[in-house]
Structure formats: C-alpha cells, structure tokens
Amino acid sequence: MAHYLTSEVAPGKTAPDFEAHTASGPLRYHRWAKDSWSVLFSHPGTSFPLELLEVARQFAEFDKRNIKVIGVSGNWLDDQKKWKASQVKYGMRIGTADKTVQIVADDAGEIASIYGMINEEDPSAEPHTVFVVDPKRTIRLALAYPATLRKNVDKILQFIDKYSSTDEINMSSFNLDSSGRGKIYTPELTRNQDNTTLNAAADVLSLGNTVDITLASIGIYHASTRYQELRDADATADYVDNAIKLLDNLSELGKVVPFVAPAFILLKVIVDVEKNARDVDAKCRDLVLRVTFMLSHLPALANLPSITPSSPQRQVINQMNSVLKETAALIEAYRNQGALARRLSLRNKDKFERCAKDLANTTKDLMMSLQIHQSVQIDTILQRSVPQDPEDEKAKRFVERYGAGDEGVVKADKALLKQFAEELKLGVEDEAIEALNTNLGDLLREHQAQLEHRIDETIRASLTSKEVDMEQTLICVQCEKEFKQSNNHALACSFHKAEYDSWSRSYKCCGTPHPCQFKAHRAKHHSDYPYGPFFPYVRGITGYTDTTSEWANVEDFNLESDVTQSASISRLLKWKSRGAAPEKPTILIRVGWVYFKDAYYFGSFTKEDLDLQSRVIEITRQTVIFRSAPSDSEYAMVEWVTREDGGITGVRLTAKVATALTPFIRVCLFDTEKMEMSGEVMCISEGGLRSYTPLSAYSLPQSQRVSAELPETAKRPARKDFKTRTTPRLPVVIKEVVDAPLRANPNMATQAADYFHGAVSVFNKHPPGTNNPISISEVKVEWRLVGDQEYKPVKSFTFLDGTKLPLTIDPRETWALQFQVAVPRSEEDAQLGVRWWERAFVARRRPLRLKVTFVDIEDEEASLVLEWVYTPFKQEKREDGDIAFIYIDDPLLFERHSLHVKPLEKEGYVLEVEGRDISVRSLQKAVYRAMKTGESEVDIEVGQKRNTGEMGEWEWKTWALVDTSCRRVYAFKILISQPRDGKGYACLEYLPCPDYGDVMSETRAVRYAVEKVGMPTLEGYSEEDIPWDDEFDDAAPEINHSQPSLANSSGVTPMSATMVVPAEVNQRLASIDANLERIATAFEQLLEIMKSRSNV
Fold first, then answer.
1. Same domain, 318 and 349
2. Which of 129, 284, 540, 941 satisfies CB 3.0 to 4.6 Å to 576 for a cystine?
3. Together in a domain, 900 and 820
4. 857 occurs within a structural domain
C-alpha cells in the first residue's frame, strides 16, 4: 500500500519547520539550513546505522555542495553513538561535521509524523524515508521505502546538481522548467494563428529601415573590450558566471527570434555541465569563453527586419546551432570521460582545436551577417591557440618517456597507469581503466544525439499551449499506478526496464523484485527509455497482421555480427488485433527491434502531431526522428522529409551495416492532410551485398565416389529341400513347419548374439497298432554359415511352448515344437555393438544353417537342417523432387549413409540438404567472408557428424564455392566420408547453386573458386568372393546295415531296415486307422443310447 503525502508535505509545498534536540544543542530547521539545499532522512526501523555510514562516506560531497543533512532519529542515543563511530571510520574528527550534518532526536515520532515518515493510522503503509528541500524551503523530492538514503545518495546528489542552478538563471521569459523544458515565447505574441511561428515573432517588432548595429548598442562597447572582460573572467575562473549573465540577457530575444532557442538550450547545457564539474579544465573553459563571445552578438538580431528561412542570417544561425551542438557534446563527453582517461587521451586536444576553429569561423560569419565591425584584435582573439592544463603537459611527457609517444602502450600497462595516477594523485580503479578504452568520438555522437532529442522535446513543449491540470489523476504507463502532476518529479516513478518473465519468475533487466529505474511519471507511451509495460503494448500492434499496413521499410544484415538494422513506416489500422480503429488517422514509425537491451524507436503520429513537429523543425532545423547508433558504419535512421518552411512531406528510411559499402535508403512521401501515401516509395540507395551477372555459364567438376553397393534384395530364397537324417532304429520324419519359417530376432536383439525362432514337427513312422512309441530325451541345435565345414553348438536353446523332456511320440503320431536359439556372434561383430530386429547380423554376408537333432532314450539321433538367408533392409533411395541423392554404403555394418538435396520454395532460402536449410543470408555471409579473407572455398557450416565415437561414425560437410568476381556462390561441394583404418568410403558431389538475392544487370567474367578440400585418398573397394550355397548338407542319409534287429516288447521281430514301405500302403493304413476310430466312437454312442432307454 502506498503512503501518499498530504498537501502540506508534497513536492512543491513548503517543508514544515520544527525545533529538535541535537548533540550541539537545540536546532531550528529553517534557521539552521539557511540558504542551502537540505536533505531530511529517516528509516522505518528503530535505527539507521547503514544510512549514517553512507552519510559519513559521502560527507565530502555534501560539504562541497553546502548541502545540510538532517537525520530524524527515533532512537537518538544509540544513533548518536553510531554517527560518531561512522565519522571515526572515515577519518573525520568528531564535531567537524556539525555544520553540515545533524542527528535530531525524535523518540516520540512527532517530526516523523509531520513528514509522513511513519503512519500511525496504517502501520503497513510504506513510510517516506528521504526529503530533498531547496534553499527556498520547497520540497523538491520525496522518496518512500524501500528507497532509502543509503541506496540513493548518488541520485540525490545528481538531482541537486541538476536543479541547483535553476533559480540562478533568469528564465522567466523563456519559461523553461528545471529540466530545460517550457515555453520559449509566450502565446500572446502570436497575432495571426494562420502565420508561421517565425512570422508571428517578426510581427511583434517595431523596426526601422536602417540597420546600424554596433556592439555598444547592445551593451558591448567594443569587441576587443568585451573580450578583455572575458579574459579577466577567465583569470578569475568566473567564466561560468559570465555565461549565466549572458543567458539572462538573451532570454528576451527568444520572444521575437524563436529560432535562436536551440542556442539558448545548448548554452544552458554547457553552463550546467561546467557548473557541476569538479575541476576547472583549461580547454573546456576556453570553449565556453568562445561560445559566450559568439552568442553575445545575438541581441543584434532584434533590430533586423523580418528573417525568412532563406535569409543569410537564418543560414548562419543554423550553422551556429550546429557548431554549438558539437561544442556542447564535446564538453559533455569530455567531462564524462574521467580524469585519468581525459589526461591520457592526447588526441582530445585535436577535437578541441577543431571545435575552436569551427567556433571562430562561425563567429566571423555571424558578425558579418549582422554587419558588426570586426577589428584585427578580434581576429587575433578568435585565432588564439587552445590552452593546455599542466596535467595535459605531464601526460604528454609521461607518454613520450614510457610509451615512446604512443598512449596505447601506457593504457595497456597497469603498472604504468598506477605510476601516472600517483603522479597526478588520481585513483586507479577497474572502472577508470575500462573508461580508458572508451572512444571519445563515439561518446560525442551519443551526446549529440541526446542533445538533439532534448532540443526537440524542449521546443515541442514550448509550442504546446495546452494547460495541464496539476491535480488531475492520471495513470502512469511505466509503473501503472495513479499520479498527479502536482506531486510528479524526476524520481517519482519506480519501475523495471524489462517486463516480468513468468517462466523464470523474475525481471530480465535486473533479476530482482525491486524496481531498478527511477524517473518521472509518464501518462503516454514513449521510446525515450525502456520500461516493462511498453513491450507488450508494442507486441499488441506489431505481432498481428490486421493492425498495420506497411508503407515502406528498409533492412540490412551484418554479415559478421548477425545484427539487423531496420526501419519502417506504416499506417495504423488498429491499436490491437480485432480492436477498433484509432480515432484519428495515425502513422507508425519504427526503428530497430523493440527490446529493452537494444536501441529502438516506436512512435505514432496524427496530423496534429505532424503539424507540431513541423513547427519544431522550423525552429531547430533538426529532421532526425531517431538514429539507432552514432557510428557511421552501422545504424538505422528515420528522418523527416520537409519543405523549406519546415512542413513535413514524408520520411526517409536508412539502414546501414558495417559489412555493406552503401546503405539502403527509401523515401516515402505522404499527404499530412489525408494521412495517405503520395505516390510510390522512392529507392535512393541499395545496400547489402548484391551480385553481378556472370558473363558465362559455370562448369562443375565430375562427382567422385569410393563405396560398396549394398544389395537391394536377397541373393536367393532360403532352401526348404533338406531331408531328415536318421537311423533305422529311429524311424521318424522331421519337417519344418511351413506356416512358421525360421525368423531372426523377432522380439529380442542384443549385441553379442542373434536369436532365431523356429518350428518343426517330428512324425513317428511305426505302423499303427504296434507298440513302438518313440521317447525323445534330448534336442540339440548346432549352427554354421554356408562355406564352413563344421557345425558349432548354439549359445542357448529354449522351448517356446513349454515342452518338457523326455517326451513320447506314439506310432503314427506327430509332435510339433517351437523353439528359440541364440547364435553367438564373432568377437569382432560383437564389438560393433549392432542391434538388428528381424534380421540376423551374424548372417548378413552368408546364409546361416541350423541343424536340429533329436535324440531318443537309446541315443539314436535324427536331424533336419533349417536355413536362414539375409533379406536386406529397405535402403534410402532418390525421392521425387530431389535435386540430388548422395550416399555411401558401409559393407561392414550394412548401412547406407545418404543425403537428400531438395529445392526450397520458402522465401529467403535456396536449398535443403538433409533437413538443413541453406538461406540466402548464409550465402551472402560466405561471399563476404571470401572477399575479406581471399579464401573462395567457404565452409558454410552445413553438415553433421553421426554415430560419433562408434565404429559406424561418419560425417558430411558442405562448402560454398564463391565467384569473387561476380560476388556470388555458384556451386556447393558436399562430401560424405566414413574413414576406417586408412580405408573407408567417401562421395564428393558438386551441385550448381540456384539463383538468389538481388542481381545487378552488370556482367562480369566468372572466377572459379580455388578448392583446397578434395576427395580423400582411399583404396578402391572390391567385393569379397562370398559363397552363397554349398553341398555340405546335401549328402544322402547313411543307413547302418550292421545293427542287429531288436525285438519289440511284443516279441515281434521288426522289419528289416532295408524294407521300404510304399507310400500307398502308408496312406491306406492311415485311412484304416481313421475308420476304426470312427467306428469305435459310433459304438460308444450306441451303448449310451441303449442304456438310457433301458433306464426308462
């Protein structure tokens, strides 16, 4: 819950006076503070030791500014002890700070209650902790908990520095506020609303027909005399006061000559910077004197007739404003460099000398246009050399002595830096060392852009005559809380730079729940600085297709950093998707990607906004809306296109990246009355990296390939003609079950073995009615590959149907069994780690045979051979739509490694290689790299390594072949390779590159790339002579004639082993058995029927 100030203690109100006890005796606040700024602070807790430590640490800063600090203590005795301890810790003598800092006793909470530092009615409310009061006893700033003095001392000092000089400058005529904003001339000066601002100002003047202007008529008796006064001021270091007096003298000029307003604003900036500077710098002082001298001639403008935009005086004033802007930016950037960086940047003097020269030339032009007499003495004054500080001379000698004249040598050596800092009595901290590498030129451009923005904002606010209701309740777009202008100030609003991330449950800008930014409340969305709610607001407009209608855009891409520079102008259709149209026709201007870490602009303009902007341009002659970076090598920018009188007629969009020689520039004209486009978008310049038309067609090398060729079908079907091998004592027939052929790894796959499932039937051939059952006591399985000369036992054997041995088969009966065996792989194959399903890796090259042997209880054996032949997996093949199909086959693992190359219809892309898209942007990057390095064969990082660390490891890579003459990629080179013990397999393919991007009509001779990557040196592959069949299992069954005939249990001598029962007899016997079985069944049924009837 926020604790709002009452009207008595709100910013803008008089701070209540009070009397309290201190260690020095009674203290009356207003009398003790006198004409100084003062800071009152407290803390919600019972004590504030950390605040006292911070006050002691920053005491020199408060004392230097003559700021009075009062701590309101609810536990005075304890805090007084801690204040003494804080002074001792920072080397202060007890009592020496009493004139600046006092801790007042407020154990009863009376003062805290008056100032809202506690809230007895609502203890949960956020209490105020800090009040900043100006010399007139007006509260200028109030901070509420969790903001405390300890966390905000630097900001408070900056706040006081910024606004302490406001009351010393008479700006009543310009009506500028403490932020440099306000009215440059009063509305009542405008007699005719139809006239321009310039004409309205000219109408006020009562001018004569003669222009006999001298410096004496404006209070300057002679230029040389006035400059001597300035030099005297220079000697006494009162150059800032001199500039302040000039501001007072020029303030009235803004009423009649509004286009000098930028000069006034820039002079105020210079004054503020120099006034708050901690030291006097000879170069800055010299520039301020030159600026003051130049601007002291401006009052002569008041006696001139009407000045039009094309008048010489107006042209000179525009030139003067431009030079002033550069001067103010230089002074500001130089002051921000830090003492160590300023002294060791020896080239800074060159910038000051160039600026002094520009000021001298502009001053001469100004005096000439105003017909002011120029004496020889003035020329001497303007041409004098820029002075140097003694510290600059020391730095120069130090660099010459230790760095051989190269300042970079000193900056790179921390020991030398420390030595130089000790000589100048400066500190060497990490921040200071980092600042040494800051380019002053970049700082200059940055500050110049900030100055332009400030001038625009000031002029715009000055031209707006709408009165603001200070007590109206508004909603801040930054913190989304209510506020009133009456209590709004520079640090009134607290917010985060980035929006809340619900995924990480934090703010991306700082990662803490507490606000990290403090600014004034704003009621309308803006792009001046980032704040969280702005980004969803923008996405609501840009993230949909029905919200805007794009008129023009430019975009370029840095081919090294991947940074995009872009700008666009659109007509706003809706503020959000499926929402209502805006009340007034509105255009949107966007620069860059809207993200809190990036430089961006996103603004909307109605006709009224454009009319106001036209009047601003008429005064400032500044047409840049936004520029993303100060660098000339890379930026995006939007500028107004205007008529001579400042009226807006369109925008100019520019996007430039460092990797392009020229920028993209488009001009979009529109009618500000209808807010509609006027004609087609004009193309002023083309950026990016465009290619030339080749003079002849490209000829590509032949493809190369070293690889096996995997079979697509089985070499032959598995044999089913193997016969049962048995002995006369074991008359059985073994057959493979037709519906269940031998299967490999149907539901299990391991690296060490292959599993086979099979099914066979065993038939007892003894005649029916004979008591000759067969008892199977053992089943064993062996295996071999075709070509081997012996069978080997399988690793394991398992019945799949749960059969248990021994098992008896009655005469003329059949036993069907299902089994699983594991065939071990060789050690080499096992190390490959391959798992196959429905295929046997062990038998991928040669057919495998299983010999299933049945052993009865008398150790008689019968066997049958089963065969399994490898059927290849379905391999990748060329598909419809493929530009190319590139592959190699691995005969060891029986794998195909392949790539499909397809065309891509997607905008901005040319090809797809195995799911990897090749974009136009990547080709442009390849061309840029080739032109920069001279290497015309460029790895575009389209490729992949697969099965890394395994025996089947392979990879593919893609290179772009660049024609550096035509600045285009003309072909791709794709290499698939699988190195293996110096042998391996590879395929090198060349593919022509489709046409892409912007191509200029100008033709150039082709220049082929110098290729460095070629086909690997490999032995040619030749297939082994592998046997696919043999006769090892084709021999006729052996018959043992030496075995004696054994009687069966009935005493009947069995038939001779040589006797062969004809098939017809076997069939007849089987038929008889079936008929007998049916007769027996019928007889049993008859007996049952007869029994049932007899019972009845």
1. yes
2. 540
3. no
4. yes
94-108, 224-238, 992-1006: which is most confident: 992-1006
Stretch among 397-401, 421-425, 753-757, 928-932 having the lowest mean pLDDT: 421-425
- Contact partners, residue 699, CB within 8 Å, separation at least 6: none
pLDDT in tens, 791-836: 999 999 999 988 898 999 999 999 999 999 999 999 999 998 899 9
Element (H, E) at 895: strand 895-903
Q: Is the pLDDT score of 375 beyond 50?
A: yes
Give the span between the Cα atoms of 559 and 657, in whole angstroms. Answer: 8
* CATH number of the domain within which 166 lies: 3.40.30.10
Ranges 160-169, 190-199, 390-399, 403-412: which has the least confidence: 190-199
Count of residues making up the chain = 1096
3-state secondary structure 58-112: CHHHHHHCCCEEEEEECCHHHHHHHHHHHHHHCCCCCCCCCCCEEEEECCCCHHH
Residue 747 and residue 785 share a domain:
yes
Q: Which residues neighbour 39 within 8 Å (Cβ) at sequence distance 6 or greater?
A: 62, 67, 68, 69, 70, 130, 131, 132, 133, 149, 156
CA torsion through residues 507, 510, 511, 514, sign:
negative
Specify whether 739 is located in the same domain as 861. Answer: yes
Assess whether 640 and 771 both reside in one domain: no
The answer to whether residues 863 and 888 belong to one domain is no
Answer for the pair 104, 75: CB distance below 8 angstroms, yes or no.
no
pLDDT at 254: 67
End-to-end alpha carbon distance in the chain = 104
User: In angstroms, what CA-CA distances link 315 with 311, 913, 928, 1066?
Assistant: 6, 61, 43, 128
Domain boundary among 182, 201, 233: 182
CA-angle at 121, arms to 118 and 122, nearest 5°: 75
Q: Which two tokens stand for residue 857?
A: 């209880």
Contacts with 758 (C-beta within 8 Å, 6 or more apart), sequence order: 736, 740, 741, 742, 743, 818, 819, 820, 821, 850, 852, 866
Among 182, 215, 230, where does a domain finish? 182
Indicate the pTM of the whole model.
0.64
What is the residue-averaged pLDDT of the chain? 81
Number of domains observed in the structure of the chain: 5
- If one counts every other C-beta atom within 10 angstroms of the C-beta of residue 142, the result is 23
Partners of 693 in the β-ladder: 1003
Whether residue 856 sits in one domain with residue 737: yes
Please, are residues 451 and 263 in contact by the beta-carbon 8 Å criterion?
no
Q: How far is CA 974 from the centre of its chain?
A: 31
Q: What is the dihedral of CA 850, 851, 854, 858, to 10 degrees?
A: -150
539 belongs to a structural domain: yes
Three-class secondary structure of residue 122 per DSSP: coil
H or E element: which one contains 609? helix 607-620
User: Does residue 415 lie within any of the structural domains?
Assistant: no
Q: How far is it, in rounded angstroms, from Cα 121 to Cα 105?
A: 22
- Closest listed residue to residue 83, CA positions, set 109, 104, 62: 104
What domain range is 373 assigned to?
A: 259-387+429-459
Residue with tokens 């001053």: 363
The reply to whether 226 falls in a domain is no
pLDDT score of 1036: 55
Q: Among the residues of 509-558, which ranges form H helices?
A: 534-542
Rg of the Cα atoms in the chain: 49
The pLDDT value given to residue 993: 95
CB 577 within 8 A of CB 544: yes
Question: Any idea what the Cα angle at residue 683 is, between residues 679 and 684, rounded to 5°?
Answer: 125
C-alpha distances out from residue 442 to 448, 545, 1093, Å: 10, 38, 123
Residue 195 token pair = 């006239």
Residues 907 and 853 in one domain: no
What CATH number corresponds to the domain at position 759?
Answer: 2.60.40.10
Quick check: 1072 and 767 in contact, CB under 8 A? no
For residue 1012, give the amino acid letter: K
